Amino acid sequence: MRTQKGRTAFRLFSLLLLLAAVTGFCTIPLFPSLVIRDTLSHKLMWSSKISDDTTFGIRWTHSIHRSLIEEQYRIQGGQIILAEMSFHDYGIGMENELSPGEELVISDGAFHIRHMNRVFPALHLFIGQVRANHTLLFAGKEIPLSSIDKPGAAITIQAEKRSILSKIGGY
To answer: Are the beta carbons of 104 and 113 closer than 8 angstroms?
Structure first.
């Protein structure tokens, strides 16, 4: 009788240990992702798998000049790096100084700041409510940020590693 109780206890312990190991594995952040979260609630609004050197862009219409601005970013070492910026009108709110190594080129009727290397742990912005039309340029797609969260919402864009459990649960 004791042997049977011992085996049952061992099997139960083994099962619990296996469940704990599987649960632990599922919570380890393994998958690099570009994520957009609502800044106030920290709720995940959008996510996509990335690798080092993944690139993406953000395009919007300037509220005063009413011309398009496009910023190109790359992910490197979990950081977001502003690599290039293009705009059509020079004035209020636009870059007015180049950092070392950056180059201002005028082509196709637009200003391009190239060779930028400005590092951000995350990007924080408010989705435009009137004319900004903020758009994420990712993997050949144009994704209006107003389709990800409501206009006027504060969002945070960052690179983070996500676990299997977070990918399934969406947090």
So the answer is: yes
